[in-house]
Inverse folding.
């Protein structure tokens, strides 16, 4: 009987410790997708810009967006934003930095901007690189020289893949396409006010939605000046 009581007490103690650890563990993931790792046997193809995963555009994206755990699981292939936080040193030191410099130099030296001419893919590629550039430029320390090395190369590629005015005009109207697809309800569901919705008349002259702003800039300056947005950069 005494052994059973002691065993029960140990189980309770261990369970309490585990619960406390779960409560105290920092949440380091940025999106729900990042919580679902890929197994070593089922790694993502990283075929974002071309069916060939070894296409140079895919390799650049993979180097900047992929994060790998010690057991080989990969994250980031389906992320909208790179898995880089304020205190992240990934891409700034060690093999990740050297490999990033290498693949960016290969892109520049081979004029790989000409490998893909589709305006939508070029616009998304520019956006993906710009997100990393903004993260690098958000602070000068640590590793200032490594930051500058990456920023310079990214800036050159961003400029090279920039679209002409005609190409920009040819891009699909993603708002209209999404509104017509009715992926989201057009109005806020009364019983679920937290549900995402997309008004179909948002930009119509007689819409009930009114744009808000102020002369000289956005109405909510702290949303663009504060971390992690850094609009003035």
């Amino acid at each position: 009987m005494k052994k059973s009581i002691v065993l029960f007490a140990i189980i309770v103690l261990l369970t309490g410790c585990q619960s406390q650890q779960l409560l105290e563990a920092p949440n380091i993931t940025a999106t729900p997708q990042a919580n679902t790792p890929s197994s070593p046997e089922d790694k993502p193809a990283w075929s974002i810009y071309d069916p060939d995963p070894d296409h140079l555009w895919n390799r650049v994206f993979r180097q900047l967006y992929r994060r790998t755990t010690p057991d080989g699981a990969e994250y980031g292939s389906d992320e909208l934003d790179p898995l880089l936080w304020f205190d992240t040193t990934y891409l700034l030191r060690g093999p990740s930095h050297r490999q990033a410099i290498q693949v960016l130099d290969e892109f520049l030296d081979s004029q790989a901007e000409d490998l893909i001419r589709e305006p939508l893919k070029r616009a998304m590629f520019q956006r993906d690189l710009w997100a990393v550039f903004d993260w690098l430029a958000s602070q000068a320390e640590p590793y200032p020289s490594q930051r500058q090395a990456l920023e310079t190369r990214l800036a050159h590629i961003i400029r090279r893949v920039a679209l002409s005015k005609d190409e920009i005009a040819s891009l699909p109207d993603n708002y209209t396409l999404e509104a017509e697809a009715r992926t989201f309800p057009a109005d806020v569901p009364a019983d679920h006010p937290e549900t995402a919705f997309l008004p179909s008349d948002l930009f119509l002259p007689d819409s009930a939605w009114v744009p808000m702003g102020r002369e000289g800039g956005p109405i909510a300056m702290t949303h663009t000046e504060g971390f992690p947005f850094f609009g003035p950069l």
